[in-house]
Amino acid sequence: MFTRIIQKTVSNWVSEKLISDYDRDIYEYGFELILSSVINIVVILISGILVGRLPESIVLLVVVIPLQSCGGGYHAKTHLRCFLIMYIGWCVVIKILPYVNELAVLFIAVASLVVIFALAPVLHENVTMSDERFRKMKMFVRGIAVCDVTMGIWLSWITKGRNNIGYSIIIGVGVVSLSMFVAKFVKWLPRK
User: What is the pTM of this model?
Assistant: First the structure.
């Protein structure tokens, strides 16, 4: 349904000469990406409201989206798979969040930083980047991860673990590092 609406909208733009027919595929793909991202975010926010975890859901999105956008990670082959992976990941995080303690958070923080420092940025096969740009992205992603972890630990410490915001930040960094690890692992697997 969404695909037809997007195709019709882009076709109208082509017929109105707002864009060229040559660029049609780019606009259609871009719209699909934006629409699927908005749907993912809205579903997670609504789910967060329904289970009483809206602040944690917002924090997870605010941490995961920019860090994974800059640092890369696993890319699903379809928008539906992407949605399912993101939603299942959110469900797991929200489910385990009440059981996380300071020791687990510290372990997640250290392990995540090790993975991010070792692997980021994880480039998709369709992305090309100069060596200079790659080095800048590596430093940028490392900086974001260190800032996120530092803020998460600081918030956890000043609240004595009474709220889940600090833990949510660190677990969000952990989710991104896991995504990076999975992306690298998938690349190592033999192709069919």
Answer: 0.81
Q: What span, in angstroms and rounded, lies between the C-alpha atoms of 192 and 51?
A: 42
What Cα–Cα distance (Å) separates residue 189 from each residue in 54, 85, 186? 37, 20, 5
Instruction: Assign 72 to helix, strand or coil.
Output: strand
Euclidean distance between CA atoms 11 and 15, whole angstroms = 6
Residues 83-116 have pLDDT tens digits of: 888 889 899 989 988 888 888 888 999 999 999 9
Query: 3-class SS at 74?
Result: coil
The SS3 call for residue 174 is: helix
Instruction: Using the CB atoms, write b or e for 59-86: b if 16+ within 10 Å.
Output: bbbebbbebbebbbbbbeeebeebbebb
Residue 20: CB atoms within 10 Å: 10
* Radius of gyration for the alpha carbons in the chain, expressed in angstroms and rounded: 19
